[in-house]
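QA checklist item 7 of 12: single-chain prediction sanity check.
[x] sequence parsed
[x] length recorded as 181
[x] structure emitted
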Amino acid sequence: VSPGQLILESEAIHACTRSKNFVFLRMLLTVIATSEPTQCEKTRAKSEALNHLDTEGLTPLMAFAEKAGGSNLEDGEDRKYCQFLINMGADKNIVNLRNGLSALGTFRLKIQHEKQRQLMLFLPLRDEPEEALMEALLEPDHGETPADRAIRLEDIVDEVDEIEVDDDEGFFFEDDSDEDY
């Protein structure tokens, strides 16, 4: 088994993108490409590594999108790292066969979970211009997938708007029944 194959099977590339470790990622890509005789084959090997599916069906770009957000989103660092991955050969058009999400949908799901947490804790939602920039960067060439499209912040806001707080009995959803949850 080649060193490159061992690296791919170990999912070290995915670990690097999740932790945003540029230095180690470049080193691993160099090791993968070293065994290739021509520059063209070296580039192909790096691209294949950056698009290799892990055991969850994620590419390294999807693994990165799954962890993007927070303060790194606000200061533009996540967008820069995302652009770096795409420039290195990461393909934003690959779709996870398990859930139909591209890297865009994976990013939206991460942001949606964060917004849902904020709403449940009654924290104000901030408009994040970097979210729109990341979405534009991650959008597949032929547009969002149906699964990507299904993930929208409005869905969470509508769901949370249906929740009332009854100080005596806890949370319950507005509907025709009087069942407490």
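[x] summary fact logged: The two ends are 54 Å apart (CA to CA).
[ ] second reviewer sign-off
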